[in-house]
Design brief:
Elements: E1 7-11, H1 16-27, E2 31-36, H2 39-46, E3 53-57, H3 63-77, E4 82-85, H4 100-128, E5 131-136, H5 149-173, E6 175-182, H6 196-201, H7 213-224, E7 234-237
Parallel strand pairs: 1-2, 1-4, 2-3, 4-5, 5-6, 6-7
Helix pairs in contact: 1-7, 3-4, 4-5
C-alpha cells in the first residue's frame, strides 16, 4: 500500500519502540500523530520529522484523555488510516512477592489502554471502510516464564484480541489487524521492574542477544505496506541466537 500522506497514530511514541515506529512511518511518507504522556519528548521527536505531524498528550489509562486526543487528531487530519498501539509497561515480578499495584497497572496500560485506543479509532475506520490496526504484543504472550506471569498474560490478551478483531472487523469493514510479537528489545522497558528478588536472580545487564527498536519499526512498515488485499496476521521477531 502507498503510505504517502496516510495518517498514522502511534501511542507510546516518546521513546523506545514507539519512537522508532513513528520515525519510520514519517520517513515512509505518513502524517504521524505522536501520542504519549511526555509532551517534551514528543516535541523533541517532532523536530526530527520531515513530514507533517501532530503532538497530542495521551494517557491510555484515562478514557477521557484518549477520547480527547483522538478528537484532536481527527480535527487536524480528518481521517485515520493506521493505529499503532505501542504504549506499554513491563514491571516483571514474582507472584509470591505480591506486587498487586504493578500487576493492575500492567493490565490497565497494556490491555485496557489498547482497548481504549481501539474504541476511539473504530468510528473513523468503520466510516472509511478501511484501516490498519497494529498491536505491539510480545513473544512473552506465547512463551511463559517465571516472573512474567502478569506481563505475559497482558500480552497474551493482546494477541487473542487481535485474532478476534480480524474475525469481526476485516470482513465487514475492511480493517486489517496485525499483532507484532517481539523478543527482547534494547529499550528501557525493564526499568519498570522493582521486584528486588527478581532483579537479583536475573541479570538483565548481560550480553544476551537483543533486537533494536528499528527492527520492530521495520516489521510495522512491512505489515502496513502490503496491498489492501493482504493482512499480515502475526509477526514474531526474535534476535538471532534466541530459539
Amino acid at each position: 500500500m502507498e503510505l504517502q500522506d496516510k495518517v498514522a497514530i502511534v501511542t507510546g511514541a516518546s521513546s523506545g519502540i514507539g519512537r522508532a515506529i513513528a520515525k519510520a512511518l514519517s520517513g515512509a511518507g505518513c502524517k504521524v500523530a505522536l501520542a504519549s504522556r511526555n509532551i517534551q519528548k514528543l516535541n523533541d521527536l517532532q523536530d526530527e520529522l520531515k513530514n507533517k505531524s501532530l503532538v497530542v498528550r495521551m494517557d491510555v489509562t484515562d478514557s477521557e484523555s484518549v477520547e480527547g486526543a483522538f478528537k484532536d487528531i481527527w480535527d487536524e487530519f480528518g481521517e485515520v488510516h493506521i493505529l499503532v498501539n505501542c504504549a506499554g509497561v513491563m514491571p516483571l515480578t514474582y507472584l509470591k512477592n505480591q506486587h498487586l499495584e504493578e500487576w493492575l497497572e500492567t493490565i490497565e496500560v497494556n490491555v485496557k489502554g489498547t482497548l481504549r485506543c481501539i474504541n476511539a479509532v473504530l468510528p473513523a475506520m468503520k466510516n472509511q471502510m478501511n484501516g490498519h490496526i497494529i498491536n505491539i504484543a510480545s513473544v512473552d504472550g506465547i512463551e511463559v516464564f517465571k516472573g512474567g506471569a502478569v506481563y505475559g498474560a497482558s500480552k497474551a490478551a493482546v494477541i487473542a484480541l487481535s485474532r478476534a478483531m480480524r474475525m469481526e472487523l476485516s470482513p465487514e469493514f475492511n480493517i486489517r489487524v496485525t499483532s507484532i510479537e517481539p523478543g527482547t528489545v534494547a529499550t528501557n522497558l525493564r526499568d519498570d521492574i522493582t521486584d528486588k528478588e527478581l532483579l537479583e536472580e536475573k541479570d538483565y545487564s548481560g550480553d544476551e542477544p537483543k533486537l533494536e527498536p528499528q527492527n520492530i519499526a521495520d516489521a510495522v512498515l512491512y505489515a502496513v505496506s502490503q496491498p489492501n488485499s493482504v493482512n499480515v496476521n502475526e509477526l514474531m521477531i526474535k534476535p538471532t541466537g534466541k530459539a
